[in-house]
Amino acid sequence: MSLALDELLGLPGLEEMTVRAGARNLQRRVRWPYVAENEGIAEWVMGGELVFVTGINHPRGEANLLSLVEDGDAVGIAGMVILTGGTFIQHIPAAVVERAEQLGLPLIEQPYALKMVVVTHLIGTALVQMGQVRRSRDDILGQLLTGDYPSLAIARQRAAHLQLALDEPRRVVALRLSAVDGLFERHRPEQAERLWQNTRQALEEQLEAWCRTVAGAVMAQLPGDLFVLLLPDAPDLRPALAALYRQLAEVTGEMALFMGLSCLAEDCAHYRQALGEARQALEVAQNMRPATGLCDFSELGVLRLLQGIADRSLIDNFVAQTLGPLIEAGRKHPYALVHTLDVLLKENGNGAQAAQRLGVHRNTIIQRIQRIEQLSGQSLDDSLFRMNASVALLIWRMSESQGKE
Protein backbone atom coordinates (compact mmCIF):
# COMPACT_ATOMS: atom_id res chain seq x y z
CA MET A 1 0.00 0.00 0.00
CA SER A 2 1.13 3.56 -0.56
CA LEU A 3 0.45 7.23 -0.04
CA ALA A 4 1.09 10.13 -2.38
CA LEU A 5 4.00 12.41 -1.54
CA ASP A 6 1.72 15.41 -1.17
CA GLU A 7 -0.39 13.43 1.32
CA LEU A 8 2.69 12.56 3.38
CA LEU A 9 3.97 16.12 3.37
CA GLY A 10 0.61 17.21 4.73
CA LEU A 11 0.94 15.03 7.84
CA PRO A 12 0.94 16.97 11.13
CA GLY A 13 4.52 17.25 12.34
CA LEU A 14 6.16 17.42 8.90
CA GLU A 15 5.52 21.10 8.22
CA GLU A 16 9.26 21.92 8.24
CA MET A 17 9.95 19.72 5.22
CA THR A 18 10.28 21.84 2.07
CA VAL A 19 9.87 20.81 -1.57
CA ARG A 20 12.89 22.07 -3.49
CA ALA A 21 12.31 20.41 -6.91
CA GLY A 22 9.93 18.13 -8.80
CA ALA A 23 6.74 19.63 -7.36
CA ARG A 24 4.86 18.59 -10.51
CA ASN A 25 5.24 14.93 -9.49
CA LEU A 26 4.08 15.06 -5.89
CA GLN A 27 1.30 12.61 -6.80
CA ARG A 28 3.91 9.83 -6.87
CA ARG A 29 3.13 7.00 -4.48
CA VAL A 30 5.45 6.23 -1.56
CA ARG A 31 5.58 2.55 -0.68
CA TRP A 32 8.07 2.84 2.19
CA PRO A 33 10.90 5.08 3.50
CA TYR A 34 14.51 4.09 2.90
CA VAL A 35 17.60 5.63 4.53
CA ALA A 36 20.58 5.63 2.14
CA GLU A 37 23.66 4.35 3.95
CA ASN A 38 25.91 3.56 0.97
CA GLU A 39 27.62 5.66 -1.67
CA GLY A 40 24.97 4.75 -4.26
CA ILE A 41 21.38 3.53 -4.08
CA ALA A 42 20.78 1.81 -7.44
CA GLU A 43 21.44 -1.66 -6.04
CA TRP A 44 19.43 -1.14 -2.85
CA VAL A 45 16.05 0.19 -4.00
CA MET A 46 13.29 -1.26 -6.17
CA GLY A 47 11.16 1.79 -6.99
CA GLY A 48 8.53 3.67 -5.03
CA GLU A 49 10.75 4.47 -2.04
CA LEU A 50 11.13 7.83 -0.36
CA VAL A 51 14.91 7.90 0.01
CA PHE A 52 16.47 9.79 2.94
CA VAL A 53 20.04 11.07 2.52
CA THR A 54 21.78 12.07 5.76
CA GLY A 55 25.50 12.20 5.05
CA ILE A 56 26.20 10.53 8.40
CA ASN A 57 27.79 7.34 7.06
CA HIS A 58 29.16 8.64 3.76
CA PRO A 59 30.40 12.04 2.52
CA ARG A 60 27.76 13.73 0.40
CA GLY A 61 29.35 16.32 -1.84
CA GLU A 62 27.75 17.78 -4.95
CA ALA A 63 29.02 14.98 -7.22
CA ASN A 64 27.64 12.25 -4.96
CA LEU A 65 24.28 13.96 -4.56
CA LEU A 66 23.99 14.37 -8.32
CA SER A 67 24.76 10.67 -8.72
CA LEU A 68 22.07 9.78 -6.17
CA VAL A 69 19.52 11.91 -8.04
CA GLU A 70 20.39 10.20 -11.33
CA ASP A 71 20.23 6.73 -9.76
CA GLY A 72 16.98 7.51 -7.98
CA ASP A 73 15.31 8.71 -11.15
CA ALA A 74 16.57 5.70 -13.12
CA VAL A 75 15.14 3.14 -10.70
CA GLY A 76 11.87 5.00 -10.12
CA ILE A 77 12.00 6.14 -6.50
CA ALA A 78 9.07 8.26 -5.36
CA GLY A 79 11.29 11.09 -4.15
CA MET A 80 14.43 12.03 -2.24
CA VAL A 81 14.79 13.79 1.11
CA ILE A 82 18.10 15.46 1.94
CA LEU A 83 18.80 16.41 5.56
CA THR A 84 20.58 19.75 5.82
CA GLY A 85 22.25 21.73 8.58
CA GLY A 86 24.25 20.40 11.49
CA THR A 87 27.59 18.74 10.79
CA PHE A 88 27.09 16.85 7.54
CA ILE A 89 25.22 18.45 4.59
CA GLN A 90 25.08 22.21 5.06
CA HIS A 91 22.85 22.92 2.07
CA ILE A 92 21.61 21.33 -1.16
CA PRO A 93 23.82 22.49 -4.07
CA ALA A 94 22.01 24.47 -6.77
CA ALA A 95 23.14 21.99 -9.44
CA VAL A 96 21.42 19.16 -7.56
CA VAL A 97 18.17 21.12 -7.29
CA GLU A 98 18.36 22.03 -10.98
CA ARG A 99 18.97 18.43 -12.09
CA ALA A 100 16.16 17.06 -9.93
CA GLU A 101 13.81 19.64 -11.43
CA GLN A 102 14.88 18.67 -14.95
CA LEU A 103 14.18 15.01 -14.22
CA GLY A 104 10.94 15.75 -12.37
CA LEU A 105 12.25 13.95 -9.29
CA PRO A 106 10.65 15.34 -6.11
CA LEU A 107 13.47 16.68 -3.94
CA ILE A 108 12.64 17.58 -0.36
CA GLU A 109 14.77 19.36 2.23
CA GLN A 110 14.56 18.29 5.87
CA PRO A 111 16.36 20.21 8.62
CA TYR A 112 18.44 18.05 10.98
CA ALA A 113 16.52 19.59 13.87
CA LEU A 114 13.51 17.56 12.71
CA LYS A 115 14.49 14.17 14.07
CA MET A 116 14.64 11.28 11.62
CA VAL A 117 12.96 8.93 14.09
CA VAL A 118 9.97 11.28 14.26
CA VAL A 119 9.69 11.57 10.48
CA THR A 120 9.99 7.85 9.75
CA HIS A 121 7.57 7.02 12.57
CA LEU A 122 4.96 9.43 11.19
CA ILE A 123 5.39 8.13 7.65
CA GLY A 124 5.44 4.46 8.67
CA THR A 125 2.33 4.85 10.81
CA ALA A 126 0.48 6.69 8.02
CA LEU A 127 1.43 4.01 5.49
CA VAL A 128 0.17 1.23 7.76
CA GLN A 129 -3.09 3.05 8.49
CA MET A 130 -3.66 3.91 4.85
CA GLY A 131 -2.86 0.34 3.90
CA GLN A 132 -5.60 -0.89 6.18
CA VAL A 133 -8.06 1.64 4.79
CA ARG A 134 -7.14 0.82 1.18
CA ARG A 135 -7.54 -2.92 1.75
CA SER A 136 -10.96 -2.34 3.28
CA ARG A 137 -12.00 0.00 0.46
CA ASP A 138 -10.83 -2.38 -2.26
CA ASP A 139 -12.51 -5.27 -0.46
CA ILE A 140 -15.93 -3.65 -0.22
CA LEU A 141 -15.70 -2.15 -3.73
CA GLY A 142 -14.67 -5.53 -5.10
CA GLN A 143 -17.64 -7.19 -3.40
CA LEU A 144 -20.10 -4.64 -4.77
CA LEU A 145 -18.65 -4.70 -8.27
CA THR A 146 -18.66 -8.49 -8.50
CA GLY A 147 -21.87 -9.03 -6.53
CA ASP A 148 -20.00 -11.31 -4.13
CA TYR A 149 -21.23 -9.94 -0.81
CA PRO A 150 -23.01 -11.77 2.03
CA SER A 151 -25.45 -8.93 2.63
CA LEU A 152 -26.11 -5.74 0.69
CA ALA A 153 -27.12 -4.01 3.91
CA ILE A 154 -23.77 -4.85 5.53
CA ALA A 155 -21.92 -3.81 2.37
CA ARG A 156 -23.65 -0.44 2.46
CA GLN A 157 -22.87 -0.09 6.17
CA ARG A 158 -19.17 -0.80 5.58
CA ALA A 159 -19.09 1.65 2.67
CA ALA A 160 -20.61 4.38 4.84
CA HIS A 161 -18.05 3.68 7.59
CA LEU A 162 -15.25 4.08 5.02
CA GLN A 163 -16.83 7.35 3.84
CA LEU A 164 -17.67 5.91 0.42
CA ALA A 165 -20.84 7.55 -0.88
CA LEU A 166 -21.87 4.67 -3.10
CA ASP A 167 -25.65 5.04 -3.12
CA GLU A 168 -25.47 7.94 -5.55
CA PRO A 169 -25.88 7.38 -9.32
CA ARG A 170 -22.50 6.39 -10.80
CA ARG A 171 -21.02 5.28 -14.07
CA VAL A 172 -18.32 2.61 -14.05
CA VAL A 173 -15.15 2.88 -16.12
CA ALA A 174 -13.02 -0.22 -16.67
CA LEU A 175 -9.39 0.38 -17.71
CA ARG A 176 -6.72 -2.10 -18.75
CA LEU A 177 -3.28 -1.99 -20.33
CA SER A 178 -2.98 -3.77 -23.67
CA ALA A 179 -0.09 -5.28 -25.68
CA VAL A 180 1.59 -6.72 -22.58
CA ASP A 181 2.62 -9.85 -24.51
CA GLY A 182 4.63 -7.76 -26.94
CA LEU A 183 6.54 -6.18 -24.06
CA PHE A 184 7.81 -9.57 -22.92
CA GLU A 185 8.58 -10.61 -26.49
CA ARG A 186 10.76 -7.56 -27.14
CA HIS A 187 12.71 -7.48 -23.87
CA ARG A 188 14.52 -9.82 -21.55
CA PRO A 189 12.20 -11.19 -18.85
CA GLU A 190 13.69 -9.13 -16.01
CA GLN A 191 13.64 -5.93 -18.08
CA ALA A 192 10.10 -6.55 -19.30
CA GLU A 193 8.92 -7.22 -15.76
CA ARG A 194 10.43 -3.97 -14.52
CA LEU A 195 8.87 -1.99 -17.38
CA TRP A 196 5.52 -3.65 -16.74
CA GLN A 197 5.57 -2.97 -12.99
CA ASN A 198 6.81 0.61 -13.42
CA THR A 199 4.08 1.33 -15.97
CA ARG A 200 1.39 -0.11 -13.73
CA GLN A 201 2.68 1.92 -10.80
CA ALA A 202 2.74 5.12 -12.88
CA LEU A 203 -0.77 4.39 -14.14
CA GLU A 204 -2.06 3.86 -10.61
CA GLU A 205 -0.44 7.10 -9.45
CA GLN A 206 -1.96 9.09 -12.30
CA LEU A 207 -5.42 7.61 -11.75
CA GLU A 208 -5.39 8.28 -8.02
CA ALA A 209 -4.15 11.83 -8.58
CA TRP A 210 -6.90 12.41 -11.16
CA CYS A 211 -9.57 11.02 -8.85
CA ARG A 212 -8.52 13.50 -6.16
CA THR A 213 -9.42 16.31 -8.57
CA VAL A 214 -12.89 14.94 -9.41
CA ALA A 215 -15.54 15.27 -6.72
CA GLY A 216 -17.00 11.90 -5.79
CA ALA A 217 -14.58 9.85 -7.91
CA VAL A 218 -13.50 6.49 -6.46
CA MET A 219 -10.84 4.10 -7.79
CA ALA A 220 -10.47 0.37 -7.19
CA GLN A 221 -8.12 -2.26 -8.56
CA LEU A 222 -9.54 -5.71 -9.21
CA PRO A 223 -7.70 -9.00 -9.85
CA GLY A 224 -6.46 -9.38 -13.40
CA ASP A 225 -4.90 -5.89 -13.59
CA LEU A 226 -8.28 -4.24 -14.10
CA PHE A 227 -8.56 -0.67 -12.85
CA VAL A 228 -12.09 0.55 -12.10
CA LEU A 229 -13.36 4.09 -11.64
CA LEU A 230 -16.73 4.94 -10.11
CA LEU A 231 -17.70 8.38 -11.34
CA PRO A 232 -20.69 10.67 -10.85
CA ASP A 233 -22.52 11.25 -14.12
CA ALA A 234 -21.93 14.69 -15.62
CA PRO A 235 -22.46 16.39 -19.00
CA ASP A 236 -18.70 16.78 -19.46
CA LEU A 237 -17.81 13.21 -18.46
CA ARG A 238 -16.84 12.08 -21.96
CA PRO A 239 -14.51 15.06 -22.62
CA ALA A 240 -13.01 14.58 -19.14
CA LEU A 241 -12.30 10.92 -19.87
CA ALA A 242 -10.81 11.82 -23.25
CA ALA A 243 -8.46 14.25 -21.50
CA LEU A 244 -7.61 11.56 -18.93
CA TYR A 245 -6.80 9.14 -21.73
CA ARG A 246 -4.36 11.62 -23.28
CA GLN A 247 -2.76 12.14 -19.90
CA LEU A 248 -2.40 8.42 -19.22
CA ALA A 249 -1.03 7.76 -22.71
CA GLU A 250 2.09 9.67 -21.68
CA VAL A 251 2.99 7.03 -19.07
CA THR A 252 1.97 3.79 -20.82
CA GLY A 253 5.15 3.61 -22.87
CA GLU A 254 5.18 0.65 -25.25
CA MET A 255 1.73 -0.48 -24.14
CA ALA A 256 -1.70 0.86 -25.01
CA LEU A 257 -4.56 1.69 -22.66
CA PHE A 258 -8.26 1.28 -23.34
CA MET A 259 -11.38 2.18 -21.38
CA GLY A 260 -14.97 0.98 -21.28
CA LEU A 261 -17.81 3.10 -19.87
CA SER A 262 -21.04 1.67 -18.44
CA CYS A 263 -24.56 3.03 -18.45
CA LEU A 264 -25.68 4.84 -15.31
CA ALA A 265 -26.01 2.68 -12.18
CA GLU A 266 -28.57 4.19 -9.83
CA ASP A 267 -26.93 2.81 -6.66
CA CYS A 268 -24.41 0.23 -5.47
CA ALA A 269 -26.92 -2.62 -5.90
CA HIS A 270 -26.43 -2.19 -9.67
CA TYR A 271 -22.62 -2.02 -9.70
CA ARG A 272 -22.24 -5.63 -10.81
CA GLN A 273 -24.32 -5.03 -13.93
CA ALA A 274 -22.49 -1.75 -14.58
CA LEU A 275 -19.10 -3.46 -14.35
CA GLY A 276 -20.27 -6.08 -16.83
CA GLU A 277 -21.28 -3.32 -19.24
CA ALA A 278 -17.98 -1.50 -18.76
CA ARG A 279 -16.03 -4.70 -19.44
CA GLN A 280 -17.99 -5.40 -22.62
CA ALA A 281 -17.29 -1.86 -23.79
CA LEU A 282 -13.62 -2.34 -22.88
CA GLU A 283 -13.43 -5.46 -25.06
CA VAL A 284 -14.87 -3.51 -27.99
CA ALA A 285 -12.36 -0.72 -27.39
CA GLN A 286 -9.48 -3.21 -27.42
CA ASN A 287 -10.67 -4.62 -30.74
CA MET A 288 -11.78 -1.40 -32.46
CA ARG A 289 -8.99 0.78 -31.03
CA PRO A 290 -10.90 4.10 -30.97
CA ALA A 291 -8.87 7.29 -31.18
CA THR A 292 -10.09 8.37 -27.74
CA GLY A 293 -9.34 4.94 -26.23
CA LEU A 294 -12.92 4.86 -24.89
CA CYS A 295 -16.07 2.94 -25.78
CA ASP A 296 -19.44 3.72 -24.21
CA PHE A 297 -21.67 0.67 -23.66
CA SER A 298 -24.78 2.73 -24.34
CA GLU A 299 -23.52 3.46 -27.88
CA LEU A 300 -22.27 0.02 -28.87
CA GLY A 301 -25.40 -1.38 -30.50
CA VAL A 302 -24.43 -3.71 -33.33
CA LEU A 303 -20.76 -3.54 -32.35
CA ARG A 304 -21.55 -6.04 -29.62
CA LEU A 305 -22.49 -8.51 -32.37
CA LEU A 306 -19.34 -7.70 -34.33
CA GLN A 307 -17.33 -8.78 -31.29
CA GLY A 308 -18.08 -12.33 -32.34
CA ILE A 309 -16.02 -11.92 -35.53
CA ALA A 310 -12.56 -13.22 -34.68
CA ASP A 311 -10.88 -11.96 -37.86
CA ARG A 312 -10.62 -8.16 -37.57
CA SER A 313 -9.64 -7.91 -41.24
CA LEU A 314 -13.20 -8.86 -42.21
CA ILE A 315 -14.49 -5.78 -40.39
CA ASP A 316 -11.79 -3.53 -41.82
CA ASN A 317 -12.52 -4.77 -45.35
CA PHE A 318 -16.24 -4.17 -44.87
CA VAL A 319 -15.60 -0.55 -43.82
CA ALA A 320 -13.13 -0.02 -46.67
CA GLN A 321 -15.52 -1.41 -49.29
CA THR A 322 -18.47 0.61 -47.97
CA LEU A 323 -16.82 3.96 -47.23
CA GLY A 324 -13.50 3.78 -49.06
CA PRO A 325 -14.84 5.00 -52.42
CA LEU A 326 -16.15 8.13 -50.67
CA ILE A 327 -12.77 9.21 -49.31
CA GLU A 328 -11.28 11.64 -51.84
CA ALA A 329 -7.62 11.80 -50.88
CA GLY A 330 -6.73 14.50 -53.40
CA ARG A 331 -9.23 17.05 -52.09
CA LYS A 332 -8.85 19.66 -49.35
CA HIS A 333 -11.54 17.93 -47.27
CA PRO A 334 -11.15 14.23 -48.17
CA TYR A 335 -13.80 13.07 -45.69
CA ALA A 336 -16.52 15.53 -46.71
CA LEU A 337 -18.66 12.88 -48.41
CA VAL A 338 -18.30 10.48 -45.49
CA HIS A 339 -19.42 13.16 -43.05
CA THR A 340 -22.28 14.12 -45.35
CA LEU A 341 -23.46 10.50 -45.59
CA ASP A 342 -23.26 10.21 -41.79
CA VAL A 343 -25.42 13.31 -41.28
CA LEU A 344 -27.90 12.28 -43.98
CA LEU A 345 -28.44 8.93 -42.27
CA LYS A 346 -28.83 10.60 -38.88
CA GLU A 347 -31.44 12.94 -40.41
CA ASN A 348 -33.27 10.03 -42.07
CA GLY A 349 -32.33 11.27 -45.55
CA ASN A 350 -33.75 14.77 -45.02
CA GLY A 351 -31.51 16.94 -47.21
CA ALA A 352 -32.73 20.27 -45.80
CA GLN A 353 -32.00 19.24 -42.21
CA ALA A 354 -28.66 17.74 -43.23
CA ALA A 355 -27.70 21.01 -44.95
CA GLN A 356 -28.63 22.98 -41.86
CA ARG A 357 -26.66 20.64 -39.60
CA LEU A 358 -23.58 20.81 -41.84
CA GLY A 359 -23.93 24.56 -42.41
CA VAL A 360 -24.00 24.30 -46.20
CA HIS A 361 -26.49 25.24 -48.94
CA ARG A 362 -29.12 22.65 -49.85
CA ASN A 363 -27.81 22.55 -53.44
CA THR A 364 -24.44 21.48 -52.02
CA ILE A 365 -26.13 18.55 -50.28
CA ILE A 366 -27.86 17.55 -53.52
CA GLN A 367 -24.53 17.62 -55.35
CA ARG A 368 -22.89 15.55 -52.62
CA ILE A 369 -25.69 12.98 -52.68
CA GLN A 370 -25.15 12.59 -56.40
CA ARG A 371 -21.41 12.24 -55.82
CA ILE A 372 -21.95 9.64 -53.06
CA GLU A 373 -24.20 7.54 -55.29
CA GLN A 374 -21.82 7.87 -58.24
CA LEU A 375 -18.71 6.82 -56.30
CA SER A 376 -20.35 4.06 -54.29
CA GLY A 377 -22.47 2.69 -57.10
CA GLN A 378 -25.36 2.57 -54.63
CA SER A 379 -28.58 4.48 -54.10
CA LEU A 380 -29.47 6.19 -50.83
CA ASP A 381 -32.99 4.91 -51.42
CA ASP A 382 -31.67 1.34 -51.02
CA SER A 383 -32.41 0.22 -47.44
CA LEU A 384 -29.60 -2.37 -47.53
CA PHE A 385 -27.04 0.28 -48.49
CA ARG A 386 -28.30 2.57 -45.71
CA MET A 387 -27.97 -0.27 -43.19
CA ASN A 388 -24.46 -1.21 -44.36
CA ALA A 389 -23.39 2.44 -44.38
CA SER A 390 -24.75 2.99 -40.85
CA VAL A 391 -22.79 0.02 -39.50
CA ALA A 392 -19.63 1.02 -41.38
CA LEU A 393 -19.90 4.60 -40.10
CA LEU A 394 -20.35 3.37 -36.54
CA ILE A 395 -17.12 1.40 -36.83
CA TRP A 396 -15.37 4.23 -38.64
CA ARG A 397 -16.29 6.79 -35.97
CA MET A 398 -14.58 4.61 -33.37
CA SER A 399 -11.54 3.76 -35.45
CA GLU A 400 -8.15 5.43 -35.43
CA SER A 401 -8.83 6.80 -38.89
CA GLN A 402 -10.74 9.69 -37.33
CA GLY A 403 -7.59 10.86 -35.65
CA LYS A 404 -5.84 11.07 -39.03
CA GLU A 405 -8.20 13.49 -40.77
Automatic annotation (TrEMBL):
Signal sequence interval, chain numbering: none
Domain CdaR GGDEF-like: 154-284
Pfam families in the record: GGDEF_2 (PF17853), HTH_30 (PF13556), PucR (PF07905)
Superkingdom, taxonomy of origin: Bacteria
Purine catabolism PurC-like domain mapped to chain residues: 7-126
PucR C-terminal helix-turn-helix domain span: 337-395
Family, as annotated: Belongs to the CdaR family.
PANTHER family attached to this UniProt entry: CARBOHYDRATE DIACID REGULATOR, DNA-BINDING TRANSCRIPTIONAL ACTIVATOR ADER
Protein name: PucR family transcriptional regulator
